[in-house]
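Give me the fold.
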Amino acid sequence: MVSLLVQTSFIGDAILTTPLVAALAARGPVDVVATPAGASVLQGNPYVRQLIVYDKRRHDRGTFGFLRIAKSSRAPDRHATAYLAQGSVRSALLARIAGYKHRVGFDTSAGRLLYTRLIPFQRAQHHAERLLRLALGPGAEVLRSALRPRVYPSDADRGAVDKLLGTVPNEGRALIALAPGSVWATKRWPYYAELAAALQATHRSVVVGSRDDTPLAAEIVRATGGDAIDATGRLTLLGSAELIGRCRAIVTNDSAPLHLASAMNTRTIAIFGPTVPAFGFGPLADASVTAEHLSLDCRPCHPHGPMVCPLGHWRCMRDLSLEAVMVRVGALA
């Protein structure tokens, strides 16, 4: 049976969809509709038959782009099923226009009136489990080992990381990845430069992220006297996953590198400020811990993290000390 999976949310959501992809592939071919960024982390996934890139904000914006994607996603027969991991009305319409008679999604989704089967959205579950239950149903037993996502860096990605690290002297210090960025400003812990300096005697820091994170990386490089490695904007997302996989551990905000680390099973110290792990996006690596300010009544303040603190003090991050994170790094790295 052919399955169509529509996942046009954030990069982290695309990564967390990979256990669902694997479960659906056990039933038959799986085609995935994803954004360009989401498709980039699904490249090389052996469980995906076809990646259909939906650039909904640029190339495929508007009605004609929508209809083009619907045509590319056409259901092959009446038994094919669409799984709506992204719950908008647009995604539901896409599956319906593409001819999928069976459409499965969450009972809280905006597009739920167009679904033929509703799955309860369990807020207490990790989002990887919630997504997996689109295929397995609400009552199935799910092992934690089945929830860890997977990504598949290519030979080119591995070669790019070899080249990046090839210029770095091997002094016996362990590599530790630092991911100081986030699209949401209040999710950026402000003490990464101090952390890199404090770890410098035992670890060489490598900063991962997009080109937008390069100014943050520059601060870290300056704090370590040029010792830290700036990898921001120099690798693909899967290249970043490969690099994270070669590190002893990662310290990361609640952002995409956290989920890349889960996929590579890299020891993870995850920092949460305006958001909380209970939202369902905590680390899934076998060895992982979180760092958060547990005594603030104002947390959580936003499902994603606002650009500015609603109360103006930003204590969820400012009061989360360097020492508190160092303790967690010492326990894992």
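The domain at 3-146 is CATH 3.40.50.2000 (Rossmann fold).
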